[in-house]
Amino acid sequence: LLHESGSPQSASRGPTWSGRLRDAKDTCGIKAFSINTTHRRYPKLMEKSNLPYDAFAVKGVPGVGGKCLVLCSDYILLLDHRTMSAVAVNRFAYPGFAREIPMDKMDEPRGGDQQHSMNVLQARKNAYLVIPEVVSEVSKIAQNESAMMLDLNDCKLTWLECFKQKEGGGFGRVHGLLSLKSGQLVHFTVRIDSGSVRTSTASKVFEFKSCGSSSVPSCISVLSDTLVFLGSRLGNSALLRCRVTSSGSAKASSENLVEDEGSLAQEMMDKSAVGEGNEEDELEKALFTSEVATDHDALVLTVCDRLSNLGPILDMTTMSTDSSKKEDVAVAACVGHGKHGAIAILSQTWRYDKLLQVDLNDIKFLQTVHSFKGDEKDRLSEEHFHAYLVLSTSDSTMVLETKEELELITERMSFVTNFPTICAGNLLRKTRIVQVYKEGVRVMRGSEVEKDVGCKDLCEGQQSEIVDACVCDPYILFLLGDGTLGLLEGSADEKGRVVVNLGSERRRNVTCMSVVENRGGYFGASESHLAILCDASGGLEVISLPRLSSVFRSSAVHEGFKRLEEATSMKVEDGGDQRGEASLCVAQIDCQADRLTKELWVSFLLSDGFLYVYRLDQCQRTRGFFFSRVNILNEFL
Questions:
Q1: Taking the CA atoms of the chain, what radius of gyration do you get in angstroms?
Q2: Residue 557 near residue 546 (C-beta atoms within 8 A)
Q3: Which of 100, 284, 299, 517 could lock onto 187 through a cystine, CB 3.0 to 4.6 A?
Q4: What does the DSSP assignment read for 223-238?
Q5: Are 557 and 534 in contact (CB under 8 A)?
Q6: Mean pLDDT estimate for the chain
């Protein structure tokens, strides 16, 4: 469908093939229609003929009404109902020698007829000779980018949205990502005037830049402004993050960056054809690592996640991974194709690699925290790695540094070690470490103490202790022994020092709590964070932060109802487990918001070890929110 209109476009193809291009070479055409389902009329808006015979895909251009892109093996066409522009992406689009076969890599014919040997040599010499009679008429208006040597057969195309904010909605320039069948990724830009498509060859309409390589593509799709999924049926699929860097900050991130990246994919294909090349070198070292300075903003791709491919399976066999366990049987399969081939081991149970084992007694709490003290550039590379592991026993706290091996560094850190730690986390974009213990809250920057808040300050002079706490940047939610629910909000002053603001409200019989970021506007709340509280009677309450106002209430969570609705409409007979133990209460809550779907998941661990998992849903009729129980294999933990 054409963008900004309900007009579909279709491509038609005439009968021809590459062996009879002297007689028929431009046999494809394209038509665009307007859809009118009310009057059942479909007027034709555009028709173009005499397009290259190997045109195989048509795409609407986003943000520009009535324009489309046609992909051929050697050309990319940009057209509307009035004009057409084209670009030639390899030397097969022009007459002459497109590529010469290296004669030193071929065996000369020996013996036999001398005329036959001469014919073989002549055929090898002219293997990539393009004669003028088979060249498409589009070459006369095409922008010459043949040095890129891109083979567009079976390529996949998607439009990128990460440039919209950078360029004010993408006006005048449209960005796309091409994934070639060789695995090469190409960032291309289409320059479009507000009025019509430029047809002048003096001004470049198309720009290309190689930006990495990947598995052989089967599909490519944009998931959000910054995420692109690249699917492959022969290799591993990848989830890519797109980032735009300015021309001044774009630099080469690899010292061994290939200067002519256009030939990288072909070199990889040549190696795989003869069984050479290391997949780790090809896909890890060269994959999405190139940031090359250009006249305009550069596209940088990084791998967020991979989806292992189990097909096509060529052969498989069973194997025993542990001779002491008869049931521990795995399947070894030969999967993939070419350079993406691999041995996959499939097992029935979870397996893990033991990195380190330390015997520690009486561990009641453990939590990993970040620690960042460098500049913004270093933070981008370090923010996903934890720096310390905080362990708490019944009467003390220990700190381990997370390097290649865990190292005990309690004496070098400023943690409060003579009390057990109730909660630990990070504030101010992971630049501060927070430790909550029964007599107060300590805020640190690295190994230095920046702020101490004692219980007297939290209790307004009254004597009490902290019994539970949660940390979710920028808030610290704590519960005092007298039932007071308090909230600390961390911020930085003009000198970069942390400032803590205090708020409190009394709650009765709260047993546990958890804080989550309000990613999806849950319960219609506009605040940035929500807190989920459970009391001794099994009641559930959701409050918004920082106002501490209630947005949802329910009851009898320990009964395990299929739906947790507002307390006024709760029905005991609606699918509960009916275990009916009045002494049960929720001992621990954990809530997580899915980063992609923004669904809110909450798990309740009861005092007897029983586990319930709920997902937040919304009724389409009443627009009210409720929790629906997810069926899992419940076990006593």
A1: 32
A2: no
A3: 299
A4: -SSSEEEEE-SSS-EE
A5: yes
A6: 78
Would you state the pLDDT for residue 112? 64
Taking the model in full, what pTM does it have? 0.53
Q: How far apart are CA 163 and CA 177, in angstroms?
A: 12
Q: pLDDT tens across 325-376, in order?
A: 666 678 889 888 777 788 888 876 666 667 667 777 888 889 999 887 655 5
- Given a cut of 80, whether residue 270 has pLDDT beyond it is no
CB atoms within 10 A of CB 99: 14
Residue 178 has pLDDT above 90, yes or no: yes
Element (H, E) at 561: none
Q: State the CB neighbour count (10 A cutoff) for residue 466.
A: 22
Query: What is the rounded CA–CA span in Å between residue 347 and residue 31?
Result: 52
Which residue type sits at 328? D
- Of 73, 87, 96, 53, the C-alpha closest to 151 is 73
Omega within 30 of 0 (cis) for the link into 546: yes
Taking the C-alpha atoms of residue 167 and residue 160, their distance in angstroms, rounded to an integer, is 12
Position 249 confidence tier, pLDDT thresholds 50, 70, 90: very low
Helices (H), 26-113: none
**Amino acid identity at 53:** Y
**Residue 417 identity (one-letter amino acid):** T
Residue type, 162: C
Any idea how long the chain is?
637
List 301's β-bridge partners, or say none: 242
Is a pLDDT exceeding 90 seen at residue 254? Answer: no
Instruction: Tell me what the mean pLDDT of segment 585-608 comes to.
Output: 89
Burial (CB < 10 A; 0-12, 13-18, 19+), residue 465, is: middle
Taking the C-alpha atoms of residue 262 and residue 297, their distance in angstroms, rounded to an integer, is: 20
Is pLDDT larger for residue 446 or for residue 434? 434
pLDDT of residue 276 exceeding 70, the answer is no
Compute CA distances 535 → 134, 185, 532, 586, whole Å: 80, 55, 10, 7
Residue 285: which of 298, 268, 271 has the closest Cα? 268
Query: How far apart (Å, rounded) are the C-alpha atoms in residues 7 and 358?
Result: 66
Q: Please, which residues have CB within 8 angstroms of residue 22's CB and are 6 or more apart in sequence?
A: 133, 134
